[in-house]
């Protein structure tokens, strides 16, 4: 079992019993979604932006406009933190104090570089799209030169990371166990609905298998 080393940067202090540094667990949480939140500083203001990503082994790719201030900001800094959270359930206790949530979360701390090699850049764009919907790159028009040149791609090397997971029921005070208040867990999951084809599609175009597979796997 391969773990990230624990340091002051990635150590989970609050609720440390729910922490894990196993790389496989970190990667699985990353692979179960395609949206992350990135924090950066702009003109002495702290800003957090959601963005799509793709993972290739220990590299996370993100993309944006050449003038995107977040992208430029983290390139200038050279380091970044990405945060990912899955909400899996509401934990409703007998007491207001013990209400909680079941979740899987990851903080990734990485080194940043601009992807300048054309082949890697195109592969990175493919990685981001296929991370969103597996295999969908083959069902779209590829970027033309103008689009390609206007896109900034950044590679984040996962230097270290930590995950925190809560997957359990209600934890109440013993003195509340025989009270008249309801307690339990409300499971939550993200599901895909029926694909809605664009009304301006040319005749004869059918929903790609990549989309149908995604929907089938996320009902």
From TrEMBL:
GO terms for molecular function: oxidoreductase activity. InterPro entries: Pyridox_Oxase-rel, Split_barrel_FMN-bd. It comes from the Bacteria. This is Pyridoxamine 5'-phosphate oxidase family protein. SUPFAM superfamilies: FMN-binding split barrel. It holds the Pfam family Pyridox_ox_2. Its EC number is 1.-.-.-. It is an enzyme of class 1 (oxidoreductase). Keywords: Oxidoreductase.
